[in-house]
Each structure stands twice: as C-alpha cells, then as structure tokens.
Please model this.
Amino acid sequence: MSSETKKDEAERLIDPIAALPSYEQTESRIAVLGHPIHAMSVAFPVALTFCTFGADVFYWWTGDVFWARAALWAVGSGFLFGMLAGFSGTAELLMVPGIRARSPAWTHFVIAVTLLALLGANWGYRLSGYETAVLPYGLLLSALSVAVVAFTGWHGGKLVFDYRLGTSTGS
Model:
C-alpha cells in the first residue's frame, strides 16, 4: 500500500468520539493540591482486599481465630475505603468530559462497582459470625475479590498510564 493510500484511509477513519472538543479534557477535578483523590485512595481497598484473602488463608491453615477477626476488619475497612475511592472516581467520571467520553473508563467503573458489591457481601456475611464465615464462603468471596481487584486495578492503571486520564496534566 502506498503512503498516499494510507493517508487517504487515515483521513476517512476518524473516531467521532476523539473528534469531540472535550475529548482532551482529562485533568482531575477532584484533587488536593493537584493530586487526584481517586488515585490516592485506591491503594487502600486494593491492599485490604489482598489482606483479607491472606488472613482467610492463614485462618484455614492455622485455625487461629485471630486471622478470622483480622479478615473481618480488613474486608470492612477495604469496603469503606473502597466506597471513598468509588465516590471520588464516580465524581471524576461524571465531571470530566474527556474521561466520560472514553468507554474504557466506564468498563473500569463497572468492574470497580462489582468489586464493591463483593467486598460488601463478604463483610456483611462475616458480621454475624466471623469465625464460622471464613470457610468455605468467606475464603471463596475473598479469592474472587482478589481476582476482581487485580483486574480493575490493572484496568485503572492502564487508564492513567496509557490514556493519562485523571492526571493533573491530562496530556
């Protein structure tokens, strides 16, 4: 294919979403001194989800009630911090036109809401008896949560590092 043909084809294949005037407006609006709150707050639910799974595995392995109690606190804290991260992420999604226009941002949103539902269910399940809740369903919910948090975290990182969404410079 000649360079002229490639140029003609490139001119015909224009992404209508990328042509929107607000497409390049991806700068964070929910920030403290230029630091996006969503990016700062997601580390807590991610880490606490892994801690919940780890505590469940240690409880299964040792039978020590400490680990069942630690898992209860980890999943509860993970859920609450996840809600904070979710509120700030949702505000970014709805308030920033360049983020809202990109479908991968919506995919990340749906996966993250799924994670919050899993963490909330896992926490709620443990509230009536954290020791008996670990095996088998608490452990299974924790393992599923780890898979979902890894997927949404990878996807969210891709949005930041590849698309520069929610950063202070935006471009």
